[in-house]
Amino acid sequence: MEKPQNGEKEEPKASICGYDSLHRLLKDNLNPHQFQEVSRLLTGLNCGKALETIALPESATALSVEHGFDLQAFSFCADKELLREPRVVKVGLIQNSIALPTTAHFADQKKAIFEKLKPIIEAAGSSGVNVLCLQEAWMMPFAFCTREKKWCEFAEPVDGGSTKFLQSFAQKYNMVIISPILERDINHGEVIWNTAIVIGNHGNIIGKHRKNHIPRVGDFNESTYYMEGNTGHPVFETAFGKIAINICYGRHHPLNWLAFGLNGAEIVFNPSATVGELSEPMWPIEGRNAAIANSYFVASINRVGTETFPDPFTSGDGKPAHADFGHFYGSSYISAPDASCTPSLSRNRDGLLITDMDLNLCRQLKDKWAFRMTSRYELYADILARYLKPDFEPQVISDPLLHKKSS
Amino acid sequence: MEKPQNGEKEEPKASICGYDSLHRLLKDNLNPHQFQEVSRLLTGLNCGKALETIALPESATALSVEHGFDLQAFSFCADKELLREPRVVKVGLIQNSIALPTTAHFADQKKAIFEKLKPIIEAAGSSGVNVLCLQEAWMMPFAFCTREKKWCEFAEPVDGGSTKFLQSFAQKYNMVIISPILERDINHGEVIWNTAIVIGNHGNIIGKHRKNHIPRVGDFNESTYYMEGNTGHPVFETAFGKIAINICYGRHHPLNWLAFGLNGAEIVFNPSATVGELSEPMWPIEGRNAAIANSYFVASINRVGTETFPDPFTSGDGKPAHADFGHFYGSSYISAPDASCTPSLSRNRDGLLITDMDLNLCRQLKDKWAFRMTSRYELYADILARYLKPDFEPQVISDPLLHKKSS
């Protein structure tokens, strides 16, 4: 919960760690012309059309001040078309830390997260957000590093308490809500899944998607708790556009992004839980690349804070047992298909990012760059089919002098 | 050929346009602690292991001063392994503007480019570069915006004059050279291709690869001149590792990057020709994403300068006819599989980027992140095969209240 730095140039090193976001650090320390050019290079903005900030109702800003969460709001540009009206959707992303120590009673922990989220969801609702997405496994600490099975108690069925909590807001604000939870599948032997539930703007459950790619890296061998999803790559047709969810580690898999695009997604949400040393330099790259390559919007969400656990655990890195596995660096942001992106939310604080996007931009970019038409998918259907065979032979052209030389 | 700015903070706007590279702009205007943190976020460096600059022989730096080209040299880190020796390869990239006006005799234009490149290639050779790559269609202006077929006269067979020019350097310096040219395929009806030729370190021609994906965007409808390549996704096994070439627009296609990876590439070169307004914000994203997703090194090269043509042409954007189609912004750089990258070469000047990379890092990242093992290619072979059929049905889950509401 460090305060953003105020832009003094010669501050001591310690305060660098307290900067709020890359965007603010640069804005505070470069002159306006420099900042404009750096923004053009880093966020694709100011190329004629700037990303505009949008005004929010006072009730929303008041909530952000009272509860200390970062609140930012932007609008992407799109061309006006002659035959289609603009299809502007207001998207909201929430990033947050947990609310109670992980030693508290599980019921209390969950309830405290509900309480903490209420004002942020209210701010989204009163700002007119159409589609809201929470972070991965938002209703619990991200305890999978511990390898202790007791945390499975947090899991809920698709129509469990967390869903019910959100359904009321969906109905109240006519808002689609994506709720990524730890799921308990009662009808299939009570197995566990990492699942995103899509709640319609009337409070109804439209459907669910289960995380396709499960990490086995660092402290994140999540297959201790749940396996690869069995729901394919569904696109959910909602009142506010066609949306899909690429959960966390799936963002490293270009084919996962691709499949949601082939199924017609216009916005793909990437609810995540990832820590600084592991992934922070990848974070601003992968969402943007997916938006560019697939001509859709990408909404990237990461949780915030450092979570400590009661029982120390080792991390397979030769270091002594410890009680946390790093800083969740927040930095949620949204990427557009034209290679522009919003600034990121804070690295340290809870936050709500609101962004207007005209979904017409997706097809405009398809028409401009023609990635889909120039994709030659037949080549790749073929190589993937061949690669899957145990006797796959890679296409390698060896220098004939290579072995001559060494003989 | 503007000079790099010298870091004064309050300069007028005009000089912003003359900054040499994003890296230098930030380094000159942030304090060292801020710059270190910004570098960590933007280039994945300083996470414990910094990217080191490496010393070059005086002959190379003297050439860069005499001929005014940007010369930068770095070394990526990799872990020491117990059972494999490091496999450090020194890679060189050259970016350059053309040498004579496009109105000069074609033979003179080509010869002048040869002369201009000589000292840069000599600097690479005398620095001990093992694998050198030139920019796309390096032996000519990038005239494809004009739609005039006279520029086809620049095309050469695989064993033509440009290849012969480079073969002598390959032999002299024991250096693999990748030469992207406009190819004339004599044996198949004299058709034209956009081709990269791989010249072995003994001066032999190892093979060729033809550009897989052809843009039809802005001034770049290159299918006016050449069609989609027919050489698959070859990986060339050279004396200095397994390399592949993803030519220009192919960088927007994640499947193209993927296929080179499936065939075993350790370094993928992306020789390009692309201009500011079209693609500059994408440029630092796509190469890095490919390196991360495929656990290999990516070397991104873009030409430099603004090329004007004798006959004005229109660009399909409603604007009057004009004689150039924008600024090739250079900015060549190299990305590593661990999400780090080098600073970019100048946006305005010719340049040579030299980088040491231990190819062992590729497998180290495969072991760490396990992207290959968690890829579930069977899902994607299946969806691509289905997508190719005219009656493909996307996987869409519609909100049942959607149509009820509107009725």
Automatic annotation (TrEMBL), chains A, B:
Tell me the route in metabolism or biology where this protein functions: Amino-acid biosynthesis; beta-alanine biosynthesis
Reaction it catalyzes: 3-(carbamoylamino)-2-methylpropanoate + H2O + 2 H(+) = (R)-3-amino-2-methylpropanoate + NH4(+) + CO2; 3-(carbamoylamino)propanoate + H2O + 2 H(+) = beta-alanine + NH4(+) + CO2
Q: Which residues form the CN hydrolase domain?
A: 89-359
Gene Ontology process terms (BP): beta-alanine biosynthetic process via 3-ureidopropionate
Q: What class of enzyme is it?
A: hydrolase
Q: Name one GO molecular function term.
A: beta-ureidopropionase activity
EC code: 3.5.1.6
Whether Hydrolase counts among this entry's keywords is yes
Q: Which InterPro entries match?
A: Aliph_Amidase/BUP, C-N_Hydrolase, C-N_Hydrolase_sf
Q: Which UniProt keywords apply?
A: Hydrolase
The family annotation for this protein states: Belongs to the carbon-nitrogen hydrolase superfamily. BUP family.
Quote the protein name from its UniProt record: Beta-ureidopropionase
Q: What phylogenetic lineage does the species belong to? A: Eukaryota, Viridiplantae, Streptophyta, Embryophyta, Tracheophyta
